[in-house]
Amino acid sequence: MQLLQPSLLSYSRSIQTGKGLFYAIVNHEGKKIKTPVTVEQTSIRGTQSSHSAGQSFYDENPDKPNLQRIEVAHLPANSDTFECVFSLNVLGKSIKPDACNDEQFIEYVAQFLKIYTDKNGYAILAQKYVNQILNGSWLWRNRDADNLTITIKVMNRTNFLEEFNNECQFIVAQPYSEQQKKFLQMLIDQFAAALSGKSHLLRLEITASGKIGLGQEIFPSQEFVEKDKMKDDIGRVLAKTSLGTVDNHAYLHPQKIGNALRTIDTWYSNASFVPALPVEPYGVDSKMQKAMRVSKDSKNDFYSLVENIISLTEELKASKNVEEIPGNVHFVVGCLVRGGVFSYSSQESVEKRKKKEAEKASKKQIKKDNKKIGS
Q: What value, to the nearest 5°, has the Cα angle with vertex 52 and ends 49 and 54?
């Protein structure tokens, strides 16, 4: 039995990230001084390098300079180390939709999520999210640093690992000590409890620091600016915000950080090793410009899986332990954790789509039967 999706369906984000603010670290007389990394304008004189530019100038002037005004961010000349800090709130928003106009759908999904919670499925997601925090992938191009260190501080659990003063530091790609493992296990438990709604909220502060060299470039997020709205013909606009007396403090967009944290979808393929994708309804790989969960042979996208939530629930029930939970089950819950508007345009459009698919299948079968008769 397939479940028709409602024409009104939306979920709020369960993992909410703040801006990733960049700082330069200077050691002065044994003290660590932290100052904001600022965004500045610069002019550069480049050469024509794109294929289209070369073709258009081929018969005219291919060595014409490529003059640009762009925004950049660098550490000061006396600093070789950066910090990036962001806050993270974990909530149980996937447990029920923000808006839904189909009671039957709510009932089936609630049953599915209850079984998932009882089988401790959220612990798998929590572990994957925490791993993404620890590997520093959310720093994007800024990840290439020596002694990259990630510090996780729990902000709203006063009784959480008091021996650690509620925080713990990890060096990326280094083995964990027993104390670090203990901290991580308790953190994952708290993370899973917040996602599943067993606790109200988990609030974290994440800090990354690494050595990249004196005056080296920092890579904040880049703003999208329509060409006709560009000011002063600036070719590249970086993300910057006001903080105290600083008006151009460089930062990473919360969306960019969030995208990296949810890059945990390795369930879209049965291959032994596949690169993780961000959890998205169609499993879009932006580097390849391809929807990895959409193919002629199988329908593993979020919408197709949710239509079959009843059979997916049966698969979940059949799993003997958390390790046996099917990957597509984790993917569906991951999409609900991600949040978004998942509405069909109308119930009528759903019926039309299903009717069209049935007609297509019928025609295909008739074609096969005719081939058999002809042979």
A: 50
210 and 79 Cβ atoms separated by less than 8 Å:
no
Contact (Cβ atoms closer than 8 angstroms) between residue 253 and residue 19: yes
Cβ-contact 296, 224 below 8 angstroms: no
| pLDDT computed for residue 125 by the predictor | 98
Percentage of the chain lying above the pLDDT 70 cut: 81
Distance between CA atoms of 285 and 278, rounded to whole angstroms?
Answer: 8
Distances (CA, A) of 53 to 57, 64, 135, 186, 233: 6, 10, 39, 56, 19
Strand partners, 170: 150
CA dihedral (189, 191, 193, 197) in degrees, to 10, reads -170
The DSSP-derived string for 243-274 is ETTEEEEEEE-HHHHHHHHTEEE--S--SS--
Q: Which residue, chain included where needed, has tokens 């990895």?
A: 292
Per DSSP, 175 falls in state: P
Decide if 219 contacts 227 (C-beta within 8 A).
no
191 SS3 class: helix
Q: What values do phi and psi take at 151, rounded to 5?
A: -115, 125
Identify whether the C-beta of residue 282 lies closer than 8 Å to the C-beta of residue 294: yes
Q: What is the DSSP string of 20-80?
A: EEEEEEEEETTEEEEEE-BEEEEEEEE---SHHHHHHHTTS-TT--EEEEEEEEB--TT--
Cβ count within 10 A of residue 185: 13
pLDDT one-digit tens code per residue, 254-297:
999 999 999 999 999 876 778 999 999 999 988 888 899 988 77
Give me the amino acid identity at 261: L
How would you classify residue 299: left for phi > 0, otherwise alpha for psi between -120 and 50, otherwise beta? beta
Taking the C-alpha atoms of residue 308 and residue 75, their distance in angstroms, rounded to an integer, is 52
Q: How far apart are CA 48 and CA 16, in angstroms?
A: 42
Does the pLDDT at position 1 exceed 90?
A: no
The closest alpha carbon to 154, from 199, 114, 203, belongs to 203
Tokens of 320: 């003997």
Q: Any alpha helices (H) in the chain, and if so which ranges?
A: 51-57, 103-118, 121-134, 178-195, 254-261, 302-307, 309-318, 327-338, 347-374
